[in-house]
Amino acid sequence: MSVSPWVDAWRRFKRHRLAYWSLWLLGALVLAVLIGPIFYKVGINDIDFKARLAGPSVLHPLGTDDLGRDLLARVLYGGRISLAVGLAAMLMAITVGVLIGALAGISRGWVDTALMWLTDLFLSLPQLPLLLLLIFLFREPLKQAFGLEVGIFILIVVVIGGFRWMPVARLVRAQFFSLREKEFVEAARALGASTTRQVVRHILPNSLGPVIVAATIDVAAAIIAESTLSFLGLGFPPDIPTWGRILYDGRDYMDIAAHWALFPGIAIFLTVLTINFIGDGLRDALDPRRVL
Amino acid sequence: MFNYILRRVLIALPSLLGISAILYGVLALAPGDPFEELAQNPNVPPEVRLALRAQFGLDDPIWQRYFHWLVNMMRGDWGFSFVSRIDVDTLIMQRLPVTIAVIGMAQLLALLVAIPVGVLAAVKPYSWFDRIASSVAFIGFSLPTFFTGVLFILFFSIYLGWLPFVYRADLSETGFAWWVAQFKQSIMPITVLGLFQAASMMRYVRSSVLDVIRLDYVTTARSKGLAESVVINKHVVRNALIPVVTLVALQMPAVFGGAIVTEQIFRIPGIGSLLIDAILRNDTPVIMAVTFVFSTLVIVFNLIADILYGWLDPRISYS
């Protein structure tokens, strides 16, 4: 009976079979991307002239591209970038979302009205065109300020994160509205807890469940957004092989070297699918209403 | 009803103004100069460049420039494309119908797939049909449109050789053959976009029907002895689809994003591919105008959804 809520949630999570197996598959993917390059010592820019556009073989497990560069090495390297972008953009979106949602939920009145108007405005912005516009405008200055890779990384993370906070803000605000009227918060208030203490100790921890679910889904959305940008030729520069970029480069050779576009696409698909399933499992596990 | 529509329009207008202000602000805050290209061009003397700057009012304060731009946009003077050498509004009007047609057909396809599948899945929740449909939907929205597009081209154009993978606006066929060719080249883009939409829409329909089917009035309808098909079609689906209207409208920004990608993959000459071309060629007036058109379309679709919602749901008061 005295099981901690986290153990309880883990039990319910395991009952969602697809989510459970997705966790293992995603774990394997992340592990491969993180430690794979330590064991698989082929450089991403090593050129093998004898095997250009070659299909999968023992020497090159995922084949090679038009310059004879090894695709496995490039896909592993690209995975690091895609996952890093996904996680960083998620953190950005969640931070902004929780801050705005909490601020609106606790202050109500005109602050709430103004913040929700802003949220609705952001929700009705056409995201991809604006993403493209921002990247077009700010790419060069950031490249000069922080260097090529870091500049583009910051830009993409901030821009993707800046367009994903709205659902979280709404979620947190709704949670705050219902939680601040609950008895345990009222009790804390009656005991003389300050607003900050009510929020940090009582309301925020209890509104964490839906935020965790949203955070999971946001990682997948950010990975798709980054790949989309790269696929449109407006993400990372060509010499940095992200999954979207490899797919974009390989698309022109689909008739003679289909593997080139297929493998990075499968990598994106598997990552996004497993993250989405895990999010679904977490929703079942963390939903306090526990509909099963 | 008229008051309700008027109020909705009055709410939509500030949003449009807000978006235009954000757009203009972003452009004004961005470092770089639209006349930078001219500065690097040795054939243009500096005096001409400065005169051009003054002529376009680039040295005025920002609010004045914004106001000036806004007035021009409303008068239909959208500027001049640096690359294509024609007016931006002419360029966009050439491209817009294709985009609207592709998005419209894709939405139609999505509705035709999502509503029946979602309703069937919800009528028997956790049955084998529901499990398969839900899993396929999950796979559907985990597959980014650019990857599905590539897979479709690989299978239908390259492996089977059935469908062309480049969309051509100037088909040489006439009469009936034109329709056949048009149909063949439209199948893949519309399916790619439509199925992606259908996947998330199906989940909305399913959960919405599940919410309604438990309500008391449905039990009443059943106990009156109505046939199950009548209960589902006339009592459940009608009410369940009301919230779906809003959710579909909220999806519009994502739809336009998908349309840009689809247009790029299949080389459809719509405003999405116009935007990408303009960005790759630094054609600022076109970029601004297309982004603004996309924003306007999103707001217009939200407005339509709001009005539809009020019309469909009599519980909403018009006063």
Brief rundown of the structure:
Chain A is mostly helical.
Describe this structure in words.
The complex is a heterodimer of chains A (292) and B (319). The model of chain A has no long low-confidence stretch (mean pLDDT 81). Helix content of chain A is 74%, strand content 0%. Chain A is built from twelve helices and no strands. Chain A is globular, with a radius of gyration of 22 Å. By secondary structure, chain A is mainly α. The longest helix of chain A is centred in the first third of the chain and has 37 residues, at 71-107. Chain B is an all-alpha fold and 319 residues long. Chain B is built from 13 helices and no strands. Chain B has helices spanning 2-29, 36-40, 46-55, 62-74, 88-123, 128-142, 145-159, 176-213, 216-223, 228-250, 252-266, 271-280, 284-312. In chain B, helix 7 packs parallel to helix 11 (252-266), helix 11 crosses helix 12 and helix 12 (271-280) packs antiparallel against helix 13 (284-312). Chain A binds chain B through residues 18, 120-121, 123-130, 132-134, 136-138, 140-141, 220, 224, 227-228, 231-234, 244, 247, 251, 254-255, 258, 261-262, 265, 268-269, 272-273, 276-277, 280, and chain B through 15, 18-19, 22-23, 26-27, 30-32, 135, 138-139, 141-144, 146-147, 150-151, 153-154, 158, 250, 253-254, 256-257, 260-261, 264-265, 275-276, 279-280, 282, 287, 290-291, 294-295, 297-299, 302.
